[in-house]
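Is iron/sulfur cluster placement plausible here? Inputs below.
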Amino acid sequence: MSEINGADKNGTKEAKEAKEMVELTIDGQKVVVPAGTNLIEAAASVGITIPHYCYHKDLSIAGNCRMCQIEIKGRPKLEIACNMIVQKGLDISTQGSSQAVKDAQAATLEFILINHPLDCTVCDQSGHCKLQDYHYEYNAKPSRFEEEKVHKVKAEPLGPNVILDGERCIMCTRCIRFCDEITQTSELGLLNRGDQTVIAVNKGKELNNALSGTVVDLCPVGALTHRNWRFNSRIWYAKETESICTGCSTGCNVKVAVRDGQVVQVKAKYNAEVNKEWLCDEGRYGFQRFQPKTRITEAAVKGSTVELQTALDSFKAFKGQDTVVFLSPDLLLEEFWLIKKFLDRDIQKFKTVIAYKERELNDVEKILVSPDYAANFRGAQVFSLGGEKLESEYKDALAAVKAGTAQNIIIIGERAILREDFSSELLSGIAKAKNSIAIISDAESPLIGSVQTVIPERTCLEKAGLYVNRKMRLQYIDRLIDSPVGTNQVWRIINMAAQRLGQELISCANDRDLTLRYLQSDPRLSTLKIAELKNGGVLLTELNEAGRSKTQGGVTAV
Ligand code: SF4
Ligand code: SF4
Ligand code: FES
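Reply from A.M.:
I modeled the complex. Tokens:
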């Protein structure tokens, strides 16, 4: 996979400058930052917010919203901070110490709002809108505008995923710059001048690139919204949790809003080292696919419902037998850890395979997406549960099942066998095997009816723990959705199975407990805190080479 676009912007020059530090003053506070730092970022590094709409650290500077004005000692007029790089000795005043800046910000907001429809009551952005927030914080005066507002396009689809309300647009051009500079697909542009200006799709195009939903995250107001999620929930009725996308092994950082067990919105969480503030559409709009519509909530043996403990006894038949173990690539790292211990101690003769396949990516996908649908395949590799040739190992195992040479089959995880691989040949191979167990979640799985023992599991959205992304970054995935009664995490099922076979592997109360126990078990990881793994993650390769890694990818101004 190529680097995320712009990741090495200014390359060596920036690296050289980074060694030099520059001292300046912001609101009377001494600030020391690397040369080349943007003023908005420099202020953010000491907790001072310079409000901004058009500025985004990973896009070019537009300088058109005028929200970021600051006062510089010795200069006659206010200037915009977004277009300024720190210089030695600068003495800056923001709204925190300058009345002139405060007045300018209030005037800017009043100007921006002149033609704004003020339809917060029906706007999806309400509750997470920078126009609302800034107006409240930096102006908070009623409108003095008495004339008829200019009317523009309403509810205009720009492509399959994004819809425009032209009247809410503040012309910051973030969306246009994203399509010009990052995806380089240039679908969007500005039409007309003055108060008639609107954004529009360029002639003959539609906004349908693989990262198109990202423009909604970038839009600071409610002008761009998701077609899928329009009017589905007020954001304050949903619970937002920070986690990792399980769509592929890039491991993009996300904020997922859930209401009544349904994902109602997904936004990017900034991580400079993984996804900046971008997400692919397949990942963003695909979260609900990890939640089967109907769930298995009771264990079964040969079609009859049984107590979980009875189903777990099925593992006894595998001890010492040649066993093929299919593993889902979205299990937690901690689960792979316990599975390896269990197989070594209690099954003894086994071959594990990960459901892994690569696909062709187009140029836009290559900016971010990994060619697999195997979010934590690296986690399996950490414990040698998958070799270097994952795809052919997986295919060979499927062929062995079809040929009847695999007689003892354990399937762990809903995606341990991909849906497209469930041929009648495969299902009949499983049905004819001497022993077979599946730990799965979907009540409509083709495995039901073929496999002897079924044990209900929790999905990857229903548990918390560690994932390792394609580039070996260890990150924390959080629980997003409550699980149905009767389901258990794979780690708990494996631990209970081990107990039935003689002795449990670990004594743990919950997911968090397990993560802490796992971190403590590895001297390289033992000083890591879960909070660090939630905030950017750490590169395992750095830990290998140089001991403890620093947390990277912290959030600043975006
Ligand atoms: S639609 Fe949103 S992101 Fe695009 S120019 Fe308007 S306000 Fe900015
Ligand atoms: S690139 Fe992969 S991890 Fe990122 S949003 Fe898309 S599917 Fe999810
Ligand atoms: S002009 Fe500076 S953020 Fe828009």
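Short version: The first strand starts at residue 21 and ends at 26.
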